[in-house]
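Justification of computing resources. Each target in the renewal requires a structure prediction run like the one illustrated here; the chain below, 620 residues long, is used simply to show the kind of job we budget for.
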Amino acid sequence: MGNLNVANRTLAVMDNLAFLRRLNNECIDLIAIDPPFAANETFTGNPRPPISDAEFAEEVALAQAHGVEHNEGQGETRVHDIWSWDEDVHPAWKMRIEDDYPSVHAVIQAVEACASENEAAYIAFMAARLLECRRVLKPTGSIYVHCDGHANSYLRTLMDAVFGSDSYRAQITWQRTSAHNDSRTFGNVSDTILFYSRQNRINVNDVRVPLDSEYVERFYRHEDERGKFRVGDLTAAELRYGETGQPWREYDPNRIGRHWAVPMTGNYAAWIESNAIPGYRDITSPLARLDALDEAGFVFHPASGGMPSIKRYLDSNLGQVPSDMWTDIRNLSGQSAERTGYATQKPLELYERIIKASSDEGDVVLDIFAGCATTAVAAERLGRQWVACDMAYRAWTMLKRRFLQNGWKMSDTTNASYDAMAKVRAALPDTKAKTIQTYTIGPNELPERDDVDPDPHHYLRQARRGARQSTQSSSWSGRISKDDAKQLLIRRFGPVCWGCGYEPRRPNGSLDETLLEVDHIRARKATQGAQGNDELYNLALLHRTCNGIKRNQMTLEQLREHNAMNSLLYVNTINELVDLYEATQFAAEQIAIHTAKYGLQTELTELASDAPEASAPRLI
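Resulting structure tokens:
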């Protein structure tokens, strides 16, 4: 099990994927995240009190010290929740997932087929991060992912693929408000929290809540000088021939085929001992315990003359374990003292319940979408270690402010935040904040790992249930990565886009391979013609711009015609681009070589029928 290779109480202000990839394997006990929801809008909030000039200057200075541009304005705080393939999904992420995690890739394809581009790009973005979350999570760890109706079904399917459906524990519905008027549909009053863990347990005694009033009224119908009580069995099924089967006073349990079952251990026995009968649990004789209970008024004798029962008092009940419908925690009101003005802030009570349920004191809690630091603050209040990450420098200010709200001070808190929160501090019982040692790091201070990535999780590499097994050997992508395919095609046909003829070069003349991507000749979701696949003979090199135009809606031939009609070719005619027939024959040769090398069976006879028609000789 890996050790945490970053200091406790660390805020990382950087891209969370880069940060996750530098954490050791299996070093986190609990991941609790509130990521964007794929709502296709930008949420804005006005921090309260407003961000001061001094605080904003500190944010800018910290960003400059990290060598990056500050990504927030001083007034509104923005949460960008609009997604696209070009801006939010690096091609290398999808290539790696396609090569190493076919089950995860299948989920991305499914969302791409049935939902919008916004949601598909979002799921691909989340997939890259959840795979890293799985790597850093301990085998005993848990993960909670907060979402809403925009993408919760897609996220659950994605998490089934990443963490395994057998790790699914609950889909918690959080009723964040009691009413929401909408004249067009049912009121949207709830969010979803997806809970996955390899161990099927929570700390039940740490999250109990008071019994529902309707339940109390229905079952605790009796009352005496000790308070409300319900009656419970003093006997259990089956005959016994020891002392538990002997008659007690006028009652004989054998007469009804049962035996005495008097509380001896557990919560109720402890409550009896501490509240009514000192030394109760030291009484070894079941019949003597019955005498002690009866003398103290715990035995309920029915008027009908049936078997006696035991009184179970409401005051002894520790409460009930919450169901998967959380209706007792409301969202923050506009006047809440906890409110920071952050657009998507969640209540501390919500994340305290999550942390209590699935971690112990001293455990490490990770949040990679820190926002206004709710998870970190909840973890600090409960005595856990925490690591938070957010790419917005506003998160640094929000964390300092949240600490001051709770009577603490981050070790790098300056007078700027201290002064900005003067009114809040004045309302606290102790206005002298306790300093807590925290660490803030940027993208140039990534942790140093002392381990290496494990092999891709074996079960994620298996063919999906019901899939045809005999074609695995003909799948080139199963034996060579997209990066290797890219280099193979560059070596044979040169560093040139097959869609427009552009050869990407830097100002100094060197090749910029990062602008060339591997895509399909015959598209997966072509609007015309048969769909393509991932075989080498269906792969082409495309400049990033051409790939953005083509998407999965055109064939390569259609892209070329589009570029010719719009004067986007870097050659004189389409015939001067890479000859697709020649490329197909080269692919067939490479597949045959690879098959011979690894002893795999490939249906090469189908290549000719799948190949594009021959065109004029390649002239480049």
